[in-house]
Design a protein that fits this description.
about 180 residues
């Protein structure tokens, strides 16, 4: 199964997102983070991700006669490589984007359903901006965003830090020739 197919289900993508940031979690802990995903579906998708090499067992322990597994994300397997992206058809990209958006909506719904959720105080943002860029300017912007984000991805969880989800989405809105000005 290709990586994009492995990650091509909103529940599996949410499991991957929940484990980002060097987390090690049990299926029960994942269930607490994803309360809208049924237990059976959660176990099935964890099994698929583990079989596909996206998750690995970080440890096991006996709990009341059963084996409790602690999973961690294999970051090298949790992203679609550029070669795979290049081989995807337009329909594959539509499906992958639909899964990404459905996952984002589910995660936002889960946030809003939590006690104490306050989008104005947290602060939550979901604006869309239209910017005109040359190819070189676009490449520079992507590099600047990566330079700003990458060091923060390595920051460990601490009591004074809140885990935020940052979901950049970038695609051309229209070709430059469509500019009426």
């Amino acid at each position: 199964m290709d990586t994009w197919e492995l990650l091509g289900h909103p529940a599996r993508l949410r499991i991957v997102h929940a484990l980002r940031g060097e987390r090690t979690l049990t299926t029960a802990q994942l269930g607490a983070l994803l309360p809208d995903v049924s237990k059976a579906m959660l176990y099935r998708h964890v099994e698929v991700l583990a079989a596909g090499g996206v998750l690995e067992v970080a440890g096991e322990r006996r709990v009341r006669g059963a084996v409790e597994r602690h999973y961690r994300l294999r970051r090298d397997r949790a992203a679609i490589d550029p070669g795979e992206v290049a081989s995807m058809t337009a329909e594959d990209h539509r499906r992958a984007f639909a899964v990404a958006v459905a996952t984002l909506v589910a995660e936002f719904d889960a946030y809003l359903d939590r006690d104490g959720a306050d989008p104005s105080a947290d602060p939550v943002g979901y604006q869309q901006h239209a910017i005109w860029l040359s190819r070189d300017e676009l490449i520079a912007l992507v590099g600047e965003l990566r330079a700003a984000i990458l060091p923060r991805l390595a920051q460990p969880a601490t009591p004074d830090r809140t885990r935020y989800l940052l979901s950049p989405i970038l695609f051309p809105g229209e070709p430059a020739a469509a500019d009426p000005g």
